[in-house]
Amino acid sequence: MTGPAGEAPLLRIDTLTKTFGGFVALDNINVEIRKGERFGLIGPNGSGKTTLVNCISGALRPNKGAVTFAGEDITSLPANQRSHRGIARSFQLPRPFRSMTVLENLMVALDFAAHGHLFETEAHRRDEAMSILTRIGLAPKALSATSALTQVELRKMELARAMATGPKLLISDEAMAGLSHSEVDEVLDLLLSLGGQDIAIIMIEHIMQAVMRFSERVMCLDAGKVIAVGPPGEVMANPRVQEAYLGT
Amino acid sequence: MQRSSIAFWLGVAIFLIVVLLMTQFIRNEYPFFAGYVILQFVVLSVAWTILGGYAGYVNFGTNAFFGVGVYTSVLLIQAYGAPLGVQILVAAIMGGLLGLGVGLLTLRMRGIFFSIATIAVAIIIETTITNWRFVGGAAGIQLQRPPVMPPFDSYVKMLFFVQALLVVVAIAVARFIQNSRMGRGLQALRDDELAAECTGVPTLRLKLLACMISGALISAGGAPAALYLSFANPDSAFNLNYSVSVLAMSLIGGTAHWIGPVIGAVLLATTQQFLAVTISSEVNVLVLGVMLVLFVVAAPKGIIGLVSRFMGKGGHA
Fold first, then answer.
1. Mean pLDDT of chain A
2. Does the beta-carbon distance from B199 to A98 stay under 8 Å?
């Protein structure tokens, strides 16, 4: 399941297991994601998608297994150091810094980014934040309070903030949930434009059309287990995936 | 930025000159005796806000840090006859170390657990001091004031000036943090700790730093209290009233900006001093409680929240 022969994966997850009390949320997960890959993560509610994201981003520690990023074992690193190494994420329910403006939300990321330069000034960082907002299409809202944003703007703000950390891997956790058709296309186009040679994207999504259009590979989880990985068409045609989604 | 800095330091200079002139021209000692307490509460409230306001971690153990400041002074006077400046400096170091210790033990906990742990620390330290004969034990200890230094003609006036200097230090530190990356990081973790971590903010390190700085300033602010009263006992040095008052002053003033605790402390401490003289020292605790309830209900962002809301509306009109 690795990418082009010989290339080391950007992210490797080995025998990852996470339990909450007696409940097994993730059961022996193995997967590799290569540099610049667009990777779809699907599965019914409660199948462990967000738990997996939490274990990758450092919000949770797994009970067993290892997470390797760019050749380095990061299993026991705190989330902020994973961010500095290039893992960024958005949240299923948006978590803006509510007492700040949109621009300031991005400034947090730039202030604490690992790629910051010694002689960089506040003005430089402000310019950089503005250029990311322009790219995302949020520049007119730069000085708005986050409470004044619409749902789709809030999703975009989270992606912008994640981009401001300078990621190599961007994890989008249901950034399209609850959006209208046109808004879904808008966010999807945005994600497609953000990915590329240097930035791999893991997209968690329930909207199948978006997953199909976006992903180079798709992984389907059910009850904490990987039930299929591969090209989108193949995974969708898999009877176990259909069963997981439609029930028996 | 530059212009506001000039205005700030100009204000500081004027404040210190006025304080110095007061000590030279006002004969009556009482205004300094009362004013010292007000300035002391400004220091404590501003220091408390660095952790309690900027980071949103409510410290109920202000009295622990204050008491450590007082008893560091007592110990230094008893053991070495150390001068006031040394007392304050060592008290700040002790307060910073206590902040580090408390922080390491408790800052991984969120919200209420941290607050409860700070109360426990205060009780443990007070108990230790109460059973330590050398610094007076439960009965307390009488302290001999050294001779006063010129240009001051009384020790209370000198302490008033020293406390004014501490006010300047506390405000300058709080203001620096607020305008720095650390301030933005603390604000981010106060809003949402997980999101802050995932955005690259080293939350634990920032919280520890804030706890140390806050603790160091509170202990420094408490250090001169030993010679202010020429007496120290555990009951008053570790009095829970310090925690309650400082919390009330900061919240009533508003904790998003360093000016908030300054306004809150000046307002409430002045009221308290006034009530203590005119009615009784018990009534001021009641007033504090009532005002805190009123503000929590009607103006949760404190006086600065009220002012900015008012100005915001005025701007649109």
1. 90
2. no
CA-based nearest residue in chain B for residue A53: B198
Q: How far apart are CA A61 and CA A76, in angstroms?
A: 7
Q: Please, what is the Cα angle at B281 between B277 and B287, to 5 degrees?
A: 100
The domain segmentation of chain A, as residue ranges, is 11-97+165-246
Establish if B204 touches chain A: CB-CB under 8 angstroms: yes
- What's the pLDDT band for B296 if we cut at 50, 70, 90? confident
Alpha carbon distance, N-terminus to C-terminus of chain A? 29
CB-based contact A138:A164 (threshold 8 Å): no
A154 touches A96 (CB < 8 A): yes
Q: Per residue in B152-203, pLDDT tens?
A: 889 999 999 999 999 999 999 999 999 999 999 999 999 999 999 999 999 9
Query: How many Å separate Cα A117 from the centre of its chain?
Result: 26
Q: Does A91 touch chain B (CB under 8 A)?
A: yes
Nearest in space to A54 (alpha carbons), one of A190, A211, A204, A205: A204
Structure tokens at A55: 């274990």
User: Using CB atoms and an 8 Å cut-off, which of residues 129-158 of chain B contact chain A?
Assistant: none
CB of A58 less than 8 A from some CB of B: yes
* Closest Cβ opposite residue A97 in set B192, B204, B256: B192
List the alpha helices (DSSP H) in B81-192: 84-106, 112-130, 155-179, 181-191
Q: Which fold has domain A11-97+165-246?
A: Rossmann fold (3.40.50)
Q: What domains, with CATH codes, occur in chain B?
A: 2-316 (1.10.3470)
- Among partner residues B187, B192, B198, which is closest to A83 by beta-carbon distance? B198
Interchain CB contact of A108 with B (< 8 Å): yes
Tell me the chain A residues in contact with residue B107 when contact means C-beta distances shorter than 8 Å. Answer: none
Contact by Cβ (8 Å): B143, B83: no
Q: What is the ipTM of this complex?
A: 0.90
Alpha helices in A195-231, H assignment, sequence order = 208-214
pLDDT digits (tens, 9 = 90+) for A27-77: 999 999 999 999 999 999 889 999 999 999 999 999 999 999 999 999 999
Put simply, whether B2 touches A (Cβ < 8 Å) is no
Chain B contact for A114 (CB, 8 A cutoff)? yes
Three-state secondary structure call for residue B32? helix
Q: Count Cβ atoms below 10 Å from residue A15 Cβ, excluding itself.
A: 12
| A88 vs B contacts (CB less than 8 Å) | 198-199
- Residue appearing with tokens 């090209």: A231
